[in-house]
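Provenance

Sequences were taken from public entries as deposited. Structures were produced by running a predictor on each sequence independently, with no templates supplied. The record for ABC transporter permease from Xanthomonas citri pv. citri is shown for reference.
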Amino acid sequence: LANLIIDIFYALIDPKLRSEINERK
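Predicted structure for ABC transporter permease:
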């Protein structure tokens, strides 16, 4: 169940999260 919630949460913040990860890398 937690996996499903995380999947949806990541889908919503995917663009912003990717941007931050790319900048850190």
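The chain has a mean pLDDT of 79.
Residues 1-25 form one domain.
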